[in-house]
Amino acid sequence: MSEMxxxxxxxxxxxxxxxxxxxxxxxxxxxxxxxDVLIGMSASRQLRQWKAQIVSDDxxxxxxxxxxxxxxxxxxxxxxxxQFAGSGEIYTLYILPDWQDQGHGRDLLTAxxxxxxxxxxxxxxxxxxxxxxxxxxxxxxxxxxxAQRNEHxxxxxxxELAYRxxxxx
Length: 169
Prior knowledge:
- This protein has helices at 14-28, 35-40, 43-55, 104-118, 135-140, and strands at 5-8, 59-65, 69-78, 88-95, 124-129, 144-153, 156-165.
- By secondary structure, it is an alpha+beta fold.
- It has a seven-stranded mixed beta sheet with strand order 1-2-3-4-5-7-6, sandwiched between helices.
């Protein structure tokens, strides 16, 4: 098996990042968010957002297989929640379904946490839907549940949990 490489996203990755984002959203959030939201997603509509995020002050990273290309994405920046001042926030962390449960999520999250430390953050926070099974992955990776809230999107109230890493590798 070839080795996965974790690297910073480049602007020419934006189209692939958008495709990975849409595919993983549809897989991860089926039954958790309204179906019409998932059906209405498209890589072409996500492309502009990802181009903007890649060139912004946020950091976008990709997990890239030498033969198959980008199979995972993650992004982080300044935490948007005042109660976690000084921490960075992991905005996205997605691995394509066919590549999950092989350690790539762990490798990408570890690389993100290390990059956050290098960027000067004193900790990391990630919000996840309370019913999303990935929350168990974050717990296994050392994240501690520290808060909860209801996010109101798409005429729906979505319970979310915050996981925090107080020390970064």
